[in-house]
Amino acid sequence: MISFTKHEGAEITNDMMHGIATLFSENYGIWGTAVEGRRQGQRVRSSPARLKSDCLPEAPARNFLVQAKDADVLIGHVLATRWAFEGLDMCWITQLCICKRYRNQGLATKLLAKLSEHDNDGGYGILSSHPFAVSATLRALGGGLDQVKECTISPRIRDIVASCPVNYVRTAKLRGSLFDSEVTDGTVSCADTGFFVDHAESDTALDEIQRKGIEWPFGRLPEGHEFLVFIERS
Prior knowledge:
single chain, alpha+beta, Aminopeptidase, 7 helices, 8 strands, globular, N-acetyltransferase domain-containing protein, GNAT_dom, Acyl_CoA_acyltransferase
């Protein structure tokens, strides 16, 4: 039986960080051709210390981990941080990872639903190169991808991103027609994060979504970029 647990701040132990670092390193993706040297084509890996540095900023940010386990085996997790912006709590999903054997079972959606449980967030954001992560976020926290006929975003998104305590989010360079009406390169809502993960798996996922007749509103994704999704709650 699959169980879900939510942990905040000091409840996130070193053992938990080791577990999610292992899951990430074994399941996330591989480095793309833009990466030079030995890493090209190798699996993207991270240490517990690197994950903590990248995904769990210092106070006053509030950090969260949601884990999914089958018996005692970790099979998926979400890392997120919350912070105050103009009197509202904002939540940014900093990592979403599912064990390959458990994908396409709605696990990501359930993890994200658990993350939002009992919280009164003003909005949720995610940067991800994977269309399934985007779809799960919209399904759990918004109206679902099939309800997004046109990509829109909060007019305050630049300020929200700039205020985020997570460094890779705060320093991301927003790109696409949603941010610049003169853009004609097919990008709509993405950001340059310098994360050159291979897009082959993401392209396959996008093809699968479109075969179902669902329109993809977020545009194309250049190398080193991630789709930017922000769901504002009223």
